[in-house]
Amino acid sequence: MEINRRFILLLVVAVAVSFTLFSGSLGGKFTLDDHSVIERRVELRDLKNLPKIWISPWHPGGEWAGNYRPLTLVSFVLNLQFSESTVGFHIINVLLYALNAVLIFYVVSRFASERVAYLSAVLFLFLPIHTEAVASIVGRAYLLGTLFALISLLYFFDKKYLLSSIYLYLAVFSGDFYIALLPIIGLFLILETGKFWGSVKLGLLYYGAPLPAYFLCRYLALGKYAFGGYGFIDPIIGPLAFAPVKERVFTGFVHLFVYLRKTIYPIDLSPDYSFNQIPLVSNIFSSPKAIIGLLFFAALILIIFRAEKRLKMAAILFLVPYAVISNIFFITTGTMAERWWYFPSFGLVILLAVGLDKIITKNKKWRIWTYGGLAVVLMWFSSIVIRQNQVWLNDKNLFISAAARSPNSVWARTNVAEGYFLSGDIEKAKEELKAALKISEKHPLSLYVLGQLNWKDGKHKEAEEALKRAIEYDAHGRNKRSLYRGLALINMDIGNNKQALLYMEEAVKWPPAGKLESILKVDEFLLKTIREYSNRSIRSYTKEEIQKIGGLIKILRGF
């Protein structure tokens, strides 16, 4: 009864703090991946599609990305049964965040003192680097995955391995990243039992047996991309996949440093770290950041082999997930994203809590100063979280913030350029696009925006060349339908109808982004229209036909 009362009290406090920190995110709209994963996802609106969702990729038509998170998609389905409003999505995210902080207290208290458990939960609750995981709706994959991971660990410490395994796979079905729990549990078994082969047998029996079923589900959803590989990596989003091993490893240590620095001193959190915001490191001795990252990595290894049990477990909880997202040992992700560090932060806050606990225990006179300093830091962190919520309110805020905080990212600069273009601020669009193309001339979206700008300026030949180059660098064909459609419209605009027909016939061979029925219908109508005019010259158009064609082009191109 006492435990239940304490749980309720902790949960109430955590919920109150979480809503204080993230109340500013409740009015946020769909942003970035929210659009494709949720907003334009027709099948999420109907409960009868639940079986289909279990064999669907995270992004519609995005098998190439290798992401499989059906349980998180199911949670979105349940959200949508109540309301289409984004407020409900944000409320659930905040509640999950609060619940995770409470569960962290209970997990840590299984192998450390209550003071360390409380400090760990409090630190975790206030870290600004977690803002993206909470304020971004699709960040729920990390919130939900962590929830089930923590419950799995609770059952593990109770030696209820079957229940622990069930929740482990609920975590993995929430987010594929949580496959990292398998080695974590394996190492914990060795620490708890002291028997290597006994731990292996126990781990295989309870945790390894369901693995084939999970991979079968992945295969049904992702096909040939179910088991990873270089084929699905985008060179802009994941440049490390194309870097030599040495550069990839050294840069992975830079990412570790960046995470540590932005956890402790989070003044410049960013929604984007893609090419070329964190340049590749070819010589580790020329990069102090890589050296610091390597030293911290080495310190964690030393802790696992030499330190007390609570520190060993904390190091494992940080190091294993880091190994999965670092790209050092194998290619799994893009470059870096703050939401990826949500679960590894669990291990880090325990290490910090143990350090604070040792300071307090060693000299009680320092207790008031330690708690006072911590209170000041938490108030500072709170102010940063509250401000950072504004970044995730809409795409405009997000792209402007990304370009400001990650000025060397071609992705960020291009998105700002596109935003300016759509709002009619052509000069600013050209300025941002020039900066983006200086970083990389091979980003399809940059070339697409260049084509739009040239088209608006009446430079049809230059616009066509830009879109052709965008097609050349569109490695996975994700945008080929829209790019070929653009080429068709450009040629239709100047009366080159035969060429327009060839481009449109090529366009419809490629899947639409998100497999949207509306896109299929529009393209079907456009193809039919172009065919009607394919053997006619622009001089033969009647006044009504000129208005019809001009209006159609204007609607589809957006200007």
Number of helices: 26
Write the H/E string, N to C. HHHHHHHHHHHHHHHHHHHHHHHHHH
Class computed from helices, strands and strand pairing: mainly alpha
Q: Give a short account of the largest sheet.
A: none
Low-confidence stretches: none
Radius of gyration from CA coordinates: 26 Å
Number of strands: 0
Number of domains: 2
Approximately how much helix is present in the residues?
A: 55-70%
Mean pLDDT: 91
The backbone outline, from C-alpha atoms, is elongated
Separation of termini?
Answer: 65 Å
Beta content: under 5%
Draw up the topology in text.
Blueprint: H1 2-22, H2 33-39, H3 50-53, H4 70-82, H5 86-108, H6 114-126, H7 131-135, H8 140-157, H9 161-174, H10 181-193, H11 196-208, H12 211-222, H13 245-264, H14 288-306, H15 309-325, H16 344-362, H17 367-389, H18 395-405, H19 410-423, H20 426-439, H21 444-456, H22 460-473, H23 480-493, H24 497-507, H25 517-533, H26 543-557
Helix pairs in contact: 1-5, 4-9, 5-6, 5-8, 6-16, 8-9, 10-11, 10-15, 13-14, 14-15, 15-16, 18-19, 19-20, 19-21, 20-21, 21-22, 22-23, 23-24, 23-26, 24-25
